[in-house]
Structure formats: structure tokens, C-alpha cells
Amino acid sequence: MILSAKPYVEQKIKELKERVSMMDETPTLAIIQVEGDPASDRYVTNKMKKCAEVGIAVEHYYFGKNVDSFLIEEKISDLNADDDITGILLQLPLPPQLDEHYLTNLIKPNKDVDGFTELNMGRLALGVYGNEPCTPKGVMELLRFYNIPVQGKDVLIINRSNIVGKPLAMMMTKQNATVTLAHSKTARLRDKIARADIIVTGVGQAGFLDERDVKNGAVIIDISINFNEEGKMCGDLDKECYDLLAGRCDFTPVPGGVGQTTVMALIDNLIEISERF
Predict the structure, then answer these.
(1) Could you give the percent of the chain with pLDDT greater than 70?
(2) According to the model, what pLDDT value does residue 277 have?
(3) 3-class state of residue 37 by DSSP
(4) What is the predicted pLDDT for the residue at 16?
């Protein structure tokens, strides 16, 4: 079965709109974006569009690619102190002259809508409530929506990034899965793929997986955004094998999969922040 995000997103938008309608004040998201990554323009536009659908206000601050770090620091400081701003999003990646880790950690943890600050990541590691990173949260929500159990499953995550792989491993472990965190240096990776019940692939290589790699009944969550030789968006899972897999495995498509759930998780985080504070 193809685990399309569309029915989940439609249901989630209705839920989020209802929660916003019950608030005395409209939540406001501040997006800080620096010129230089073409994909970021598309991502930010989509985030702003979904926020508008739900009824959330957005303030968009756009800086040139040669911006000095001090100006970003100053803007984050101003937004931290602004009581009208519910959450702050620093759109990644940033140009090389800007330190992503340093700037991200200037955001107040209670306004960290992406869940990337050290405090929120530490809370996740300890199993304490906090703002969760959006892509892992979206993955877990999509699995719940399709009633795919995690408990007791052998989960292979082929991505060890701080943004996706590591936090997702903690979330899966919290739900009583047995998790293997793999990467490009993992020995006998294909053997591990063949045995896994749930495979989360974030390698960033078009055609990395096909129907021969996975066992019957496996679940494949494709979090990669790649572009094939024809310039069309794809994930790590070879699109030519979608039809062959549909009868024996569950998998997310690209596009139309995890990318959309990530945006829903971002908005959900913002509304949760507003509800708490």
C-alpha cells in the first residue's frame, strides 16, 4: 500500500483549524530565511500556505546570502523578546559564513518550533515533554494514522543526522521498537535492510532501494528528496518499482509523503506552544 500523506493532511488541517479557532489570540510564526538555497523558497512558501489554511499568522524575514551573523542574531533576539511571536523558525540550510548550530541555539527553547535547540533535543533524549523535531514527528504521526504498529518491530534508520535520524531513533525506542541506526559506513547494510520490519531511508541517493532489497510486509519510509536524471523529484526508493511493491509492502511516495507531514508537525508544534503558554 502507498502511504500517501494526503488523507492524513486533510484530517490534520481540520483538527488544527478547530484548535486555532478556540484560541483567544492567533498564534504567530516568525520565519527567518537567508537567500542561497533554491529548495528553501519552495519549502517556505508551502509552510506559509499551510499556516494560512489553518489560520496562523506568519511574519517572514528574508536576508541576502551575504548577511552578517550579527544581523541574524539581532533578529532572533528581537523575536525572542516579542510576546506577539509564538514560535521562531530558522530555515536551514544557511550559507557557509553562518553557524547553524550557534544561531539555532539562540532561539528560546519555548519558541523553538523546529525542536532543534539543545534543550529540546535533550528533553527528547530524556523522554521529557518538549518541542519535537518536525520530520521525525511527522513520520510517527503518519505511522499512527495508517495503524502501523512500532512496538516490537525491528526498525532500521539509514540516517544519523541530528535533524532526522537520531531524534527518530529516540522516538521509535520510546514506542518500544528495536532500532538500528545505520549510515554510509555500516557493514552489511543490505543484509540489515533485508531483515528490517520498518526501514526509514534518508541516504539522499535516487534509486538506492528497490523491490529486491526488502522482505514481504516491510514498511518503507522514504525521507529523502532527490532529483533524477530527468530533473524530477524522487526519494531513495526507485519509483519504477512502486507498482511491484504496492502488493507486498507499505511505503511512502516522494513527492506526496513525509514532506507534507513535516509541515503539519511544524504547525502542530506552534499550536502546542500557544496552548501551553
Answers:
(1) 100
(2) 78
(3) coil
(4) 97
